[in-house]
Design brief:
The protein is an alpha+beta fold and about 575 residues long. The chain is about 40% helix and about 25% strand. The chain has 14 helices and 18 strands. Strands 3, 4, 5, 6, 12 and 13 form a six-stranded antiparallel β-sheet that branches. Strands 8-7-11-9-10 form a five-stranded antiparallel β-sheet. Helix 3 packs across helix 5 and helix 11 runs antiparallel to helix 13.
């Protein structure tokens, strides 16, 4: 049996630990998703209703309410706007705004955001990941993002931040078929120097961490991914782990011009060997670190030596350098002495001040079938996975709105089932007759026919008695409608937002005012989504700087039909 890489073993151990912590949340989230998708009766409840000759009817209010909330929250396309810190960065700010709009379009951002909001409402948590697709744009790479299934996401249980920025590890684990692995990661089929491929060392697995369905549906609804064990293809577990680590960096400040430099350990030694110049004149000592000025002074040093003075041309009156110490004919006080140095000497003289600091970085470990596929340290300090949590209780297991309205939906279903049972009883009137007064089978056949019917009976044996159900009170129907309204209010949706004219005032201004007030409740959730997108934007900006290093032209179509063109690099 091949030896498992330590990083892969760590991913598998953490996955088992995180899975054990979130089993209860995942089970409840799956039940919420089933409930939204018409699986609202348990098997025992369905059997009991059918034994009573009642129908397990479902009056699904949750699904249209969630869809209405998604429509309200995504009515406008998100627009990323960046501004410079000072006036010189205004153009750069516009470029970043256009690039973010471009990335949103190529990633089908609106569709991905709708999926995130759907998970946010139904499962309690939505998630989005930013990544670089190296094969797009003919191998030059593109920055993209997509929605992540919360059931595939495993977060450090100790995390308390709503965006999981304080988590030690975040993992995406899913099971892919053999064909999916080869298409997504073609490098597993590339042979090494010995002719072996990574695919030959991979181990098959099945997804036994996905929660199972607990409710039944009359429409045979399939919720969640299909179990890989039912397919003919081999399946492999993919674990994409992101770990936050701290790496030493050198932060240096050049006191001569105020420039700041940040270097890792491997680049810091090169930084210390950069040339610099010390210039001594009658006015004092000055240090030059600008690369262009240093090269100019080094050229003068090669031509005139390390010491020179200025002479005045008698014909033009212009000064010119002359090697050597100052002479009586030289310009008084013009002697200049040059000394070549490097940044290491400037650091020793505290002309350049350097401090060693620890900086957050994200370490990524990708494994397929217990084989290490990739390992890298990403040059970003925030997780590329950003979560959108609904009812966050300072743990990575938030509660969904569906979980709060499930009892109300069950109450609506029970009332609807009783109303239908009452209607069925009303159309099938019960007849009480004395025993032996007539043929029971003939009576049932005649009584069940529509239209006028004639039934003979013997009055000497007693008079038939018609027994009908007691009429249902109107308050019962009102309670059902009130329960439906309660669901919309819990989800932050006013009836007027659905186009219901019943609650609209008589005047246009009154209607506009009510509509504005109705949106204040849903705006709280919109603020959460904006904060998530801003956090995603911070990560995407850093990926942009690392990915788009070649010249690139971006053309965007504006809503008014005009196009804008942006050129990078």
């Amino acid at each position: 049996m091949p030896i498992t890489h330590p990083e892969v073993q760590k991913s598998e151990d953490l996955l088992e630990d995180y899975h054990a912590q979130r089993v209860e949340w995942a089970t409840q989230a799956m039940e919420d998703d089933e409930f939204r998708n018409n699986s609202q009766w348990t098997a025992e409840q369905t059997k009991t209703l059918k034994d009573r000759a009642q129908s397990p009817i479902i009056d699904n209010v949750i699904h249209p309410a969630v869809e209405q909330a998604k429509a309200l929250l995504t009515a406008n396309k998100p627009k990323f706007q960046s501004t410079g810190r000072d006036d010189s960065d205004t153009k750069v700010g516009r470029v970043f705004s256009d690039i973010m709009s471009y990335i949103w379009d190529i990633s089908t951002g609106t569709s991905e955001l709708k999926q995130v909001i759907d998970d946010y409402y139904v499962k309690g948590m939505g998630a989005m990941v930013a990544y670089v697709d190296p094969m797009m744009d003919f191998g030059r790479g593109e920055v993209c993002f997509k929605a992540v299934d919360p059931f595939d996401l495993f977060i450090d249980p100790a995390s308390r931040d709503t965006f999981c920025r304080d988590a030690s590890n975040i993992m995406i684990s899913k099971t892919l078929t053999e064909e999916q692995v080869q298409n997504a990661y073609p490098q597993v089929m590339q042979p090494d120097e010995e002719g072996n491929t990574l695919f030959s060392s991979m181990t098959q697995s099945s997804n036994d961490r996905y929660p199972h369905e607990s409710r039944t549906s009359e429409t045979d609804t399939i919720v969640g991914p299909v179990d890989g064990d039912t397919t003919d293809s081999r399946n492999y577990q993919v674990i994409d782990r992101y770990e936050k680590i701290q790496l030493p960096f050198w932060h240096c400040v050049d006191t001569t011009n105020g420039n700041e430099y940040i270097h890792a350990d491997d680049k810091y030694e090169e930084f210390l060997q950069k040339p610099a110049m010390m210039v001594e004149t009658q006015a004092g000592v000055a240090f030059v670190t600008d690369i262009e000025k240093v090269q100019e002074l080094m050229g003068m040093m090669q031509q005139f030596g390390d010491t020179f003075h200025m002479m005045q041309d008698p014909q033009t009156g212009q000064p010119y350098p002359q090697p050597g110490e100052e002479t009586p004919e030289a310009v008084e006080g013009s002697t200049t002495k040059l000394t070549q140095m490097n940044f290491e000497q400037l650091v020793a003289e505290e002309i350049v001040v350097c401090n060693k600091v620890l900086v957050d970085r994200i370490k990524r470990v990708l494994s397929v079938g217990r084989a290490l596929l990739a390992q890298q340290i990403m040059d970003i300090d925030e997780y590329p996975i950003v979560t959108l949590m609904n009812r966050h209780n300072r743990n990575p297991y938030p509660m969904s709105d569906v979980r709060f309205i499930k009892p109300i939906q069950e109450y609506i279903n029970k009332i609807t089932s009783l109303i239908i049972a009452h209607a069925s009883s009303s159309t099938n009137t019960k007849l009480l007759i004395p025993r032996g007064s007539m043929n029971r089978q003939q009576l049932e056949q005649e009584w069940s026919r529509a239209g006028t019917g004639v039934i003979e009976y013997d009055p000497e044996l007693g008079q038939p008695i018609v027994a009908g159900p007691v009429p249902l009170p109107n308050e019962l129907y009102k309670n059902r409608e009130d329960a439906k309204s309660s669901i919309y209010h819990i989800l932050g949706i006013h009836p007027l937002s659905q186009g219901d004219p019943g609650s609209a005032p008589q005047t246009y201004k009154g209607t506009v005012a009510i509509d504005e007030y109705a949106q204040r409740r849903i705006k709280s959730k919109l603020d959460d989504i904006d904060a998530m997108l801003n956090q995603m934007g911070k990560v995407v900006v850093k990926l942009i700087q690392q990915t788009y290093t070649d010249e690139k032209v971006i053309r965007l179509m504006k809503p008014d039909g005009t196009t804008s063109e942006t050129t990078m690099n």
